[in-house]
Amino acid sequence: MRNLSFLLMTLCLFSTSAACSSVMVEENWGKFISNIAKGNSQTIAVLPGKIKAISHSITDPQAIELVEAISFALINKPLATLQATEEIGTSADTLVQRFDSGSICSVPAILSYTKSSVLKYYALATEALKKAGKPAAECLNIMQAAMAEIQQEDERGEMKWGNKSFNPVRASG
C-alpha cells in the first residue's frame, strides 16, 4: 500500500487532476495547515495555486480548517497572506473565492471558538494589520466591522460561542 501511495504521489507531481489533488491533500494536510497558520513564507507564496488545485476535492471541515489557518497567518505574515488571498479572489471559481481576503478578514469560523479566543485573535490580528500599514487597511476595516457586528450580537445575547481555544503559533520561514 505504501508503494502505491508513493507511486500516486510521484505521478501527481506531473498532474493537476482532482484525483491527484485529493491524494496530495490526504498525504500532507496537517503539515500544510500548520505551515499556513504559522505564516510559513514558502507555503503562503504557493497558496493561490494550491487552493486552485484542491478547492474541489476538500471536504467542508477541511475548508473550515483552511480558512482558519489562513486567518491565523494574518498575525505572522499579514502582507504576504493578503497578497495571496487577493490573488485567490481574482478567480472566477466560487469554491476558490471562499478563501479570498474578504472571507479571511471577516473573523471567519468564530462560531467554533470561545469568546476569549476570538478576542485574543482579534487583538493580535488587528495589531498585525495596523503595523502592516496602508496595504492592510481594507482588511483591517473589514475585520473591525465584522467584530462590531459580533459584539452587538453578543450584547443582545444572540452570539453562540464555540469551545475551541485559540493558541497563537509563531511565524516560520
TrEMBL record:
<protein>
    <recommendedName>
        <fullName>Lipoprotein</fullName>
    </recommendedName>
</protein>
<keyword id="KW-0732">Signal</keyword>
<feature type="signal peptide">
    <location>
        <begin position="1"/>
        <end position="19"/>
    </location>
</feature>
